[in-house]
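Researcher: Let's run the pair from yesterday's discussion. Sequence first, then tokens, for each.
Model: Starting with the first of the pair.
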Amino acid sequence: QVRLKESGGGSVQPGGSLRLSCVAAGFSLDYYAIGWFRQAPGKERDEVSCIGRSADSTYYADSVKGRITISRDSAKNTVYLQMHSLKPEDTAVYYCGTKAECTSDFDYNDWGQGTQVTVSS
């Protein structure tokens, strides 16, 4: 059963912006840290960002620092990934997933089916 759903992906030109959303079905995201990772064809998965349970801690990969903001809205049971100044190398399928906490380990408990982000001219 898929309990997480990503949305907001699409095709944009370099320098464009997108806001991705991660919504949980049937459970509260309040109990988990939420991470975003991406995977492009032929490439290894790459964690982009993570936000702690109480949003008191955030993590950004060096490749996206300054261009991405992660946030969460408990009332909407949603985590957002606001992206701007997008680059072609950001092209990938983006996934959100639950974690016990934001750590360096790629220890996701559950994740969704992903949303495609394509950045090209």
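Model: Moving on to the second of the pair.
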Amino acid sequence: QVQLVESGGDLVQPGGSLRLSCVASRSISSIPIMGWYRQAPGNQRELVAEVASGSTNYADSVKGRFTISRDNAKNTVYLQMNSLKPDDTAVYYCKARTVLNYDYWGQGTQVTVSS
């Protein structure tokens, strides 16, 4: 089992930046896939970015603006978000997919982009 805790969400102006953090309860080096998803009111939860063994994947809407990274020593996955737009407003969730293809989710952190 994996417990995930997100933090870093805030209210920011368009064009601003935020860094989200996801702290896992055990070593993330043993977890095949870590990802960030987001969900706006009335919308489905969608993939933002994920990192697997030796590769990353991003939604088209965030390519060039967001970067997913990890710090294994801290059991933490980050999402650096630059050039934020109002359409980025959502609750952002961290997900871990284990070796048995079992998914664990964090509680979410709110990101609001508004002037």
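Researcher: Give me one sentence on the second I can quote.
Model: The chain has no helices and eleven strands.
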